[in-house]
Design goal:
Layout: H1 3-46, E1 49-51, E2 57-59, H2 63-74, H3 77-108, H4 114-126, H5 129-150, H6 162-176, H7 178-189, H8 194-202, H9 207-218, H10 220-232, H11 241-245, H12 256-264, H13 273-301, H14 305-315
Antiparallel strand pairs: 1-2
């Protein structure tokens, strides 16, 4: 047997495989380098530059950061936006998590009208954002006041009432996010072994106990993913406010995400990209360690982590 010839054949085959693999990943890798590394590197450098006209940017050092901190102290919009962003995160995430789990469990247990609720909850996710916002505005500022007026109650529209506007926007975002969360939660619940559920029923476990002590622990990883993603989006979530108000939202509904988006879409002399880049760097320095801290904590406080691992291995 000619082992040298066989070795050359295998080496030639590995070379062909390597060429094929290189050609296969060349375009995605090029796109990643240009649209992720290139764009983010340019944004990072832009934070230390200033615009001087004729499409020229010159080095400015830490001037943009000083300008940004000066704006923090002078403009109230940043404080309002920070409070609103935190409200949106805590209220929206908590209510979305609780309602998403409850509706998902209802569908998972194949209760009455489960398919109807599945379609109803997922419907907002497939309707275009602008169309859905227009319909919601008609209901919030048109239909609801009209119904209350017919009952003899005089009331302003929910979006037209400053005391209810931001709460209504939070409700809208929770509602439109139901489809994806329910879809993923139901998928995670359906992976729970029937033998585990049947064993719990033989021990006299009811629906409530099953939900608390079996379902939630076994979908904890999915819950953690939603929470971590929400933490990562605290300062970039513009809560569809731009779809509601374009760039004319009142200060009391502004979030940091909306402020950044509104300022970023400006063009010409009105745009202040260097300061926005500096703002983005500051937010990243806060968000990145926060995300990792939340991920670490969720991994530690997860219900019976070792027990969940054994159950999953037993199911396999």
């Amino acid at each position: 047997m000619d082992f040298e010839k066989i070795g050359r054949i295998f080496a030639k085959r590995r070379t062909k495989d390597l060429i094929f693999y290189s050609l296969l990943i060349a375009l995605p890798l090029l796109q990643f380098c240009i649209f992720y590394i290139g764009v983010n590197l340019n944004s990072l450098l832009l934070a230390f530059k200033t615009y001087q006209g004729d499409d020229r940017y010159v080095w400015a050092g830490w001037a943009n950061f000083s300008n940004l901190f000066e704006r923090f102290s002078l403009l109230t919009v940043f404080r309002v936006a920070l409070v609103n962003s935190l409200k949106l995160f805590f209220i929206g995430t908590l209510s979305g998590l609780i309602c998403g789990l409850l509706f998902s469990y209802y569908i998972y247990k194949k209760a009455l009208l489960k398919n109807f609720f599945k379609v109803l909850l997922f419907l907002p996710s497939i309707i275009p954002s602008i169309a859905l916002v227009l319909m919601f505005k008609q209901v919030a500022d048109g239909a609801i006041p009209a119904v209350l007026a017919a009952m003899g109650i005089t009331a302003r529209g929910l979006l037209a009432n400053p005391d209810a506007t931001f709460g209504t926007i939070i409700f809208y975002n929770v509602w439109v996010g139901f489809g994806v969360s329910v879809l993923l939660y139901v998928g995670a619940m359906e992976k729970i072994s029937e033998s585990v559920v049947e064993a719990a029923k033989l021990d006299g476990t009811g629906y409530f106990q099953e939900f608390i002590f079996i379902t939630i622990p076994l979908v904890w990883d999915t819950m953690s993913t939603f929470i971590i993603v929400a933490v990562g989006g605290i300062f970039v979530n513009q809560a569809n406010i731009y779809a509601f108000y374009s760039d004319g939202a009142e200060e009391y509904v502004v979030t940091i995400g909306y402020y950044l988006y509104k300022e970023t879409v400006k063009t010409g002399a009105a745009a202040d990209y260097p300061v926005l880049s500096a703002f983005g760097i500051l937010l990243s320095l806060i968000t990145i360690p926060l995300v990792y801290a939340v991920k670490f904590v969720l991994g530690k406080i997860g219900p019976a982590t070792e027990e969940r691992r054994r159950v999953v291995e037993k199911e396999k």
